Amino acid sequence: MALYDILGATYSRTRQPDPRIAAQIQAALGDAADVINVGAGTGSYEPPQTVLAVEPSQVMLAQRPPRSAPAVRAVAEHLPLRDDAADAVMALLTVHHWNDPAAGIAELRRVARRRIVILTWDQRIFRERFWLVREYLPQAAAFDDTRAIPADRLATLLGGAHQEPVHVPHDCTDGFGAAYWRRPHAYLDPQVRAGISMLAQTGEDALAPGLAKLTDDLATGHWHDRHADLIALDTLDVGYRLLLTDL
Questions:
Q1: How many degrees, rounded to 5, is the angle at CA 188 between CA 129 and CA 93?
Q2: pTM here?
Q3: CATH number assigned to the domain comprising residue 132
Q4: Structural domain boundaries, residue 7
Q5: Taking a C-beta distance cutoff of 8 angstroms, is the pair 75, 93 a contact?
Q6: Starting at the edge strand that comes first in sequence, how are the strands of the sheet with 35-38 ordered?
Q7: How far is CA 115 from CA 10, 36, 112, 221, in A?
């Protein structure tokens, strides 16, 4: 059973594409005439020129909107596609789920004619800058330590890559890990946590003490006192990165 057959049942409710991040991804794809989306999930950020989505989870595929691109159930390490199948291939917040990232990247390089675009994160920056894992849920960060692929390693596997920071808006509509950095109450919502793999896979029992501490700190105002500087910010760099490679 694919990971998101278990975790993805409510994914489309909390993981709506953010238009500002979408614009950055679209700019990274450039003038690609056709795009393949690998690890496509429910279809977030797919541009109009997407010709195929690749996703291993049937639960995620079932949540794709009507009239979205055709989709096939497969894994990144074994793409059912010919060489040079599309101008561009994108893989967004998915590489950390692959069993063999090196094999998956090799497949992206085989299938893309001109460009590869990957959205990932730098775990070191994420640990340092994101208050939730630093102060409340270090066990979730420890879980990500085991699966996060350093951006520099990905760049090497890609044969070189340009890296762009992806700043997270304070009102981000895509509820990934650090999306609620200025809305701490959101992390107390089980449905929100269910859409964030690092929290869902860490497990509620392990998260309970940290969530109880966060609940208390919000009630007493300690969180807001400690993080008053965040309230004035519109965006935050928490380590998310776009990697662009031209072939």
A1: 50
A2: 0.91
A3: 3.40.50.150
A4: 3-246
A5: no
A6: 71-72, 50-54, 35-38, 86-92, 112-121, 240-246, 162-165
A7: 32, 11, 6, 47
Q: Which of 104, 38, 100, 93 is nearest to 71 (CA)?
A: 38
Strand partners, 140: none
In this predicted model, what pLDDT tens digit does every residue of 128-170 receive, in sequence order?
999 999 999 999 998 888 889 999 999 999 999 999 999 999 9
Helices of type H across 86-203: 101-111, 123-129, 131, 138-145, 151-157, 190-194, 197-202
Q: Is the pLDDT of residue 12 over 70?
A: no
Handedness of CA 217, 220, 226, 227 (dihedral sign): positive
Count the domains in the chain.
Answer: 1
Q: Could you identify the residue written with the tokens 């975790």?
A: 7
Strand 35-38 vs strand 235-236: parallel, antiparallel, or unpaired? unpaired
130 to each of 52, 117, 119, 178, how far by Cα in Å? 34, 24, 18, 7
| Residue 78 DSSP code | G
The pLDDT tens digits of the residues spanning 25-58 come to 999 999 999 999 999 998 999 999 999 999 999 9
